[in-house]
From TrEMBL:
Signal peptide: none annotated. Belongs to the carbon-nitrogen hydrolase superfamily. Nitrilase family. This is Nitrilase 1. One of its GO terms (molecular function) is hydro-lyase activity. PANTHER family: NITRILASE, OS02G0635000 PROTEIN. The keyword Hydrolase applies. Keywords: Hydrolase. CDD domains: nitrilases_CHs. Residues 30-302 form the CN hydrolase domain. It catalyses: 3-cyano-L-alanine + 2 H2O = L-aspartate + NH4(+). The lineage of its organism: Eukaryota, Viridiplantae, Streptophyta, Embryophyta, Tracheophyta.
């Protein structure tokens, strides 16, 4: 099948789609790549260099969209507790957080400009997980870029999982975008927030067709979740998971793995991947891979979305709004607002 050619610089920029917007009918196929690889922990410049090599390789395959894992830039702190126990924090844990904070990126910022240039250089849609630094709070965030090198926007994880809640802030309804592109409507949810039925429903209502699910969940049950979402949403699901070994983290005592009887060997697998690409019919098109770092590439027949929706359209003919409905609060939720004496809202700074 022929691939859709890259857009020219004169074409319009990509807006976020409106609720239940009509489907774009210009594209028939899309080639996509899911990256399964590790960060270079505590070394953001080296991680960005690695990202470019991987994007270049994917672009060499003719891929139009490249998806990276959860917090690829900034890294996932496997095995770290940041010195936390109930009622106490250790000095070492605070130092660990300081280093993790230093490895995060500002949005916007120079690293975002670098990623924009990367997407433009290789003419791909780039979707990549980062640790976002907003003042002194960190967020688990996904950034999206178009083939013209334009930064499209971000999604902040709305519910960090378990101990993640003590080192990442919570996103809100203002950063759950779906973007209308020539290869389909694309968006992303991160790791276990993909298990949140109402959040998924919001994405379906925005018309998502290429559903990106960056994660660090390498358990076999993750494949079941991704297959269900593809069937439920009538969409293509792309899930990118890190594959990393102990040697991808600094050696002890700079970085230690807690909760284990002994320190892992350098070759010990910390996160075993499981990245996958699944069609709207539930067919696995690529993966899952649990063996090594890898690039998983597949051609998406976009007509399959319509065929799947004929059977089941979760927010269309299969919805029962007179019985079940969902309200999504999409306005930002700032910590502080200032009210003037005249009773109007003053401008505020949101982090």
């Amino acid at each position: 099948m022929a691939l859709v050619p890259s857009r020219s610089d004169s074409e319009a920029l990509i807006p976020e789609v409106e609720m239940n917007a009509g489907a774009d009918q210009t594209a028939t196929t899309a080639r996509v790549t899911v990256v399964q690889a590790s960060s270079v922990f505590y070394d953001t410049p080296a991680t960005l260099d690695k990202a470019e090599k991987l994007v270049a390789e994917a672009a060499g395959y003719g891929s139009q969209l490249v998806l990276f894992p959860e917090v690829f830039v900034g890294g996932y702190p496997h095995g770290s507790t940041f010195g936390l126990v109930v009622g106490n924090r250790t000095a070492k844990g605070k130092e660990d957080f300081q280093k993790y904070h230093a490895s995060a990126i500002d949005v916007p910022g120079p690293e975002v400009s670098c990623l924009s240039a990367l997407a433009g250089k290789y003419k791909v849609f780039l979707v990549i997980g980062v640790v976002e630094r907003a003042g002194y709070t960190l967020y688990n965030t996904v950034l999206s870029f178009d083939p013209l090198g334009k930064y499209l926007g971000k999604h902040r994880k709305v519910m960090p999982t378990a101990l993640e809640r003590v080192f990442w802030g919570f996103g809100d309804g203002s950063t759950i975008p779906v973007y209308d592109t020539p290869i389909g409507k694309m968006g992303a949810l991160i790791c276990w927030e993909n298990r949140m039925p109402l959040l998924r429903t919001a994405m379906y209502a925005k018309g998502i067709e290429i559903y990106c699910a960056p994660t660090v969940d390498c358990m076999p049950t993750w494949l079941s979740s991704m297959t269900h979402i593809a069937l439920e949403g009538g969409c293509f699901v792309l899930s990118a998971c890190q594959f990393c070994r102990r040697k991808n983290y600094p050696p002890p005592p700079e970085y230690t793995f807690c909760g284990l009887e002994e320190e892992p060997s350098p070759e010990s697998v910390v996160c075993s991947g499981g990245s996958v690409i699944i069609s709207p019919s539930g067919t696995v098109l690529a993966g899952p891979n649990y063996e090594s770092e890898a690039l998983l590439t597949a051609d998406l027949d976009l007509g399959e979305i319509v065929r799947a929706k004929f059977d089941f359209d979760v927010v269309g003919h299969y919805s029962r709004p007179e019985v079940l409905s969902l309200l999504v609060k999409s306005d930002p939720k700032p910590a502080v607002s200032f009210i003037s004496a005249a009773g109007r809202d003053d401008d505020y700074v949101q982090t």
